[in-house]
Amino acid sequence: MIGPISCVTIAAPDLGAMEEAYELLGYRSTGGGRISGELANFWGAEAVEGAQFLLMAPATTTGFHFRFVEQPETEGYAAYRCWGWNAAELMVQDTDALEQQLLGTPFHILGPPADLSISDAIRAMQVQGPAKEFLYLTMFKRRTEFDVPEAVDFVDRTFIVILGGPTVEMLGDAWGERFGLTYGQPRPVRITVMGQVYGLPYDHRFMLSTMSLSGSNLIELDSMPETAEPRPQRDGWLPPSISMVSFVSDSLGDQTLKGQPGAPYYGREAGIWRGPVGEWVELIAP
User: Does the pTM exceed 0.85?
Assistant: First the structure.
């Protein structure tokens, strides 16, 4: 079992800027402190021992946090130029109203609200935050065939994380072998922000599929252009921007850590896994 998504960790050079930005989304600070040596070593990111971190959660929804960890910016990183965790998708109540709210803020609007090419019942916009992280802000205008949570808060939890690599099959087969997940037949879909990064025509299609997780969450699998590369990373540090995604899982693996206080662990045992394109995956016992 794997899912739901319990935490998205973002490496950021300025925690104050992250807090101010995410407060604009209605998120609230729930705690923080410094990364312990035990946790840094468990991650394989010894350089972040003692680094400050900040936890933020939706206004009322429980069970999900953003974790911002302070570390210097990584040269050469640009979202969607690299394999790995490219974006987090958040459930929202009104995408168009949110766009007006974010104009002139630290969130740079990359794609204004638009109905998805796969369904006019789903309307989304794309923004980039202060740590170069990409967020999809998505509303469901009516029920669809997708099993997704309802947006209780105006900007609610992350319900999809976007993973990019050379092919959907490479990603999906590795995750399937590790967690018993299955993915649907890849289909061509317009991904506006990725097309912008590579200077491709608006109607260019990329192959995409999804894997369903427990808790009505998903992982989106994107086939990226051939010029995409492994994510640059400084030795001993977290990967830049969206560094790691934490999932509830009963399959922790051999390397585990016990007894970490506070979110997202609450004292539960955790495991770590490196995915097929080097993506960092944290696994937290139910």
Answer: yes
